[in-house]
């Protein structure tokens, strides 16, 4: 008679060994895949330094897609940033870097230069800006370096300035570029953020004309963005359908820098 092999139920030890084998197999494979992916990204070419810099090209492609996704999902012109009663505004306003806005400036000689779509330019004096409708804003200013402060700014809403000077064709473009008079500091903004109702060209801080270190005579205040985009001492404004140069994006910071 042939001996029949009876299938025995697995012992506890066998079960454990089998499960260990399976888990190590699965985690090992996932780990190897993750390592392979990381190595691929690590060795992938860096993006060509231009408007943005410092990231590996595939990562930048992913970042750009993520930016568009969140812009479409979360940005809404009618959504306002939280504002505060004026008494809550800091009396001693924090100060950060002064690239392109060091020292003083002569207000009588200063002009805001706006380059229209057709390349013709507008040269606007300080007094012409003061004559436009005034908007006040008390909000929590946030710097990427990790500080924030409730501050009080006033000036002309950027959108009001655009309508006053009939820059309708320009608002149909995708981006706005701002530069200091010496072109040492420059930022690029997407049009929806630029024409947001709380984006202002400020000439006052705590009800007084801007001191030189806070952007005399005119600075950008854009609460939907981090501090880096709030350019001090505006010299020139341009419009384009391609992203304008941006000082910090060239150093590897996020181009959009939205909140
Ligand atoms: N011209 C110019 N504007 C600038 C900067 C700069 O270095 N130069 N720094 C930016 C940064 S990083 C921040 S946080 C704010 C700080 O503004 P404040 O100095 O008025 O606090 O200005 C922004 N605008
Ligand atoms: Mo900043």
TrEMBL record:
Transmembrane feature ranges: 21-38
Signal peptide feature range: none
Domain called Oxidoreductase molybdopterin-binding: residue spans: 105-248
Lineage: superkingdom: Bacteria
Keywords: Membrane, Transmembrane, Transmembrane helix
Alphabetical list of PANTHER family matching this protein: PROTEIN-METHIONINE-SULFOXIDE REDUCTASE
Protein known as: Molybdopterin-dependent oxidoreductase
């Amino acid at each position: 008679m042939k001996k029949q092999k009876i299938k025995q139920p697995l012992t506890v030890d066998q079960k454990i060994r089998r499960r260990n084998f399976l888990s190590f197999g699965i985690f090992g494979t996932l780990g190897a895949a993750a390592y392979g992916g990381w190595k691929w990204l690590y060795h992938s070419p860096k993006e060509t330094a231009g408007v943005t810099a410092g990231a590996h090209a595939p990562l930048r492609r992913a970042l750009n897609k993520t930016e568009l996704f969140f812009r479409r999902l979360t940005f809404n012109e009618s959504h306002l940033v939280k504002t505060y009663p004026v008494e809550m505004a800091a009396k001693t306003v924090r100060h950060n870097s002064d690239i392109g806005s060091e020292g003083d400036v002569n207000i009588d000689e200063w002009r805001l230069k706006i380059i229209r779509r057709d390349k013709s330019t507008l040269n606007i004096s300080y007094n012409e800006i003061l004559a436009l409708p005034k908007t006040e804003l008390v909000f929590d200013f946030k710097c990427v370096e990790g500080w924030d402060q409730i501050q009080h700014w006033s000036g002309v809403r950027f959108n009001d300035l655009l309508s006053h000077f009939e820059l309708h064709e320009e608002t149909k473009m995708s981006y706005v570029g701002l530069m200091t008079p010496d072109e040492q500091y420059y930022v690029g903004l997407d049009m929806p953020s630029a024409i947001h109702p709380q984006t202002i060209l400020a000439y006052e801080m705590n009800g007084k004309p801007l001191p030189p270190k806070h952007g005399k005579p005119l600075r950008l205040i854009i609460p939907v963005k981090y501090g880096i985009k709030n350019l001090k001492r505006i010299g020139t404004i341009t419009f384009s359908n391609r992203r304008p140069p941006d000082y910090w994006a060239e150093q590897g910071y996020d181009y959009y820098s939205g909140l």
